[in-house]
Write a structure and sequence with these properties.
alpha+beta, 13 helices, 10 strands
């Protein structure tokens, strides 16, 4: 029990000396603290952003149901592609045709097949114009697969999709920018100078993936192609399996049926690759993790550079401290202080110095998280593990880089140290 007060006393003394060193050597200590603070700030800010993006991605996928999968013309690919069919064989894939979509809707293992096509358009109401607007075309299954919160108003009907009716459901952001506080229902807006009647307003969930901070309109997919001139070759499908079986079995059965049906309609031979891509949510998460993981790795390397800069500063300032306190160390050793005691004191001093930088970096990272949360679609939040990692990394940096000056102080000969002027 008697050892604990001694350890506590040594720690408090090391902290006090570190603070005195900061005051006495403001420039050197400031540069050291700055390097550590930058490294910690990068770790915290990126971790907060990635945490918020992860939550948004999980929420977006959950809104479509865990078993929903996608059929697209092109796969998700990271292979080298120069635009030629030799290096990118999937460029030869034909677009999804209406008869293929109808055939998939007839499959007993499939509950719904939704078509989706995204385009850009200029949207205007009277003198107000939005030049950069996302216009998405959906089939009538929109409300079954990715149920939107439409209020006030309603979504378009199957008959409106078949006839290519010029009706639109706009996002709350578009409604605010075009109509202000007035009721948008029944009003006519122009998309690329083509009139559309507003029949509903939907709440667009703001997230990193769906770009909810951008005005958006949803129209029948047939209208988007016929009236606005979108290319039908970009149509993608969202397939929702029937879930009489276990979810995983239902999805796998639907994938097998969809694959067999499309390959049969396209006359694909058993040895040939499929001329379409089926993408599950697991595959999307895997691709997403790769992208975010590479980005996060780069940020960690950059933060590591900041920690190394701070660590070099720790070595410099601690070496100066050892030199300035050589006589004091000799007196302490003459009075019975052991090498371990001296080593411990200087390591505590180094860890305190970098810990101050870590705390500052954590505070600035918290401010950065607030800015990201309030001014971007990312609902950034700092995970508790990131706080522990940031402070732990800063203290460990101080200990590692403080070992050299601390060991030098511990090895000083007391007689030579007492003679030092």
């Amino acid at each position: 029990m008697s050892a604990f007060p001694a350890v506590l006393s040594a720690m408090s003394e090391g902290v006090r000396i570190a603070i005195d060193a900061v005051r006495a050597n403001k420039v050197r200590a400031g540069l050291t603290i700055l390097g550590i603070a930058v490294g910690v700030f990068v770790v915290v800010a990126i971790a907060a952003a990635v945490h918020g993006i992860n939550q948004a991605v999980a929420r977006d996928f959950a809104s479509m149901g865990p078993t929903t999968f996608f059929v697209t013309r092109y796969p998700i690919s990271f292979e080298s592609c120069d635009g030629s069919e030799t290096s990118c064989q999937w460029l030869r894939n034909p677009p999804l045709r209406p008869n293929e979509v109808d055939a998939l809707r007839q499959l007993p293992s499939v509950d719904a097949v939704g078509e989706r096509l995204e385009w850009g358009a200029k949207v205007a109401y009277r003198s107000t114009e939005l030049s950069s607007t996302s216009v998405e075309g959906y089939s009538a299954e929109w409300t079954l697969i990715n149920a939107p919160e439409v209020y006030p108003g309603r979504a378009f009907t199957p008959s409106e999709v078949r006839t290519g009716a010029r009706v639109a459901v706009i996002s709350t952001l578009m409604a605010e920018r075009l109509f202000g506080d007035s009721d948008p229902l029944g009003k006519t807006i122009a998309m690329n100078d083509v009139p559309f009647e507003v029949i509903g307003v939907f709440k667009d969930n703001v997230s990193f993936l769906n770009g909810g901070d951008r005005p958006k309109a949803v129209v029948p997919i047939t209208t988007l192609i016929r009236s606005i001139g979108a290319r039908a070759s970009g149509v993608a499908l969202a397939v929702k399996p029937r879930e009489e079986l276990a979810p995983a079995l239902a999805r796998d059965l639907a994938i097998d049926d969809v694959t067999a049906t499309l390959r049969g309609l396209r006359g694909s031979r058993p040895s040939e690759e499929s001329s379409f891509a089926i993408i599950t949510q697991d595959r999307l998460f895997e691709t997403y993790d790769k992208i975010v993981g590479m980005f996060f790795l780069v940020m960690l390397v950059l933060s590591g550079v900041g920690l190394i800069v701070g660590g070099v500063g720790v070595v410099a300032i601690m070496m100066i401290s050892v030199t300035e306190r050589t006589r004091e160390i000799g007196v302490r050793k003459a009075l019975g202080a052991t090498k371990a005691t001296i080593l411990w004191q200087f390591l505590v001093e180094a860890a305190t110095l970098t810990g101050i930088g870590g705390a500052i970096g954590l505070f600035v990272g918290w401010l950065g998280t607030l800015l990201i949360r309030n001014f971007t679609p990312v609902e950034a939040s700092i995970p508790p593990l990131a706080v522990v990692a940031a402070l732990g990394a800063s203290c460990i940096t101080g200990i590692l880089f403080g070992l050299l000056p601390a060991s030098r102080a511990a090895r000083l000969d007391p007689v030579e140290a007492l003679r030092y002027e």
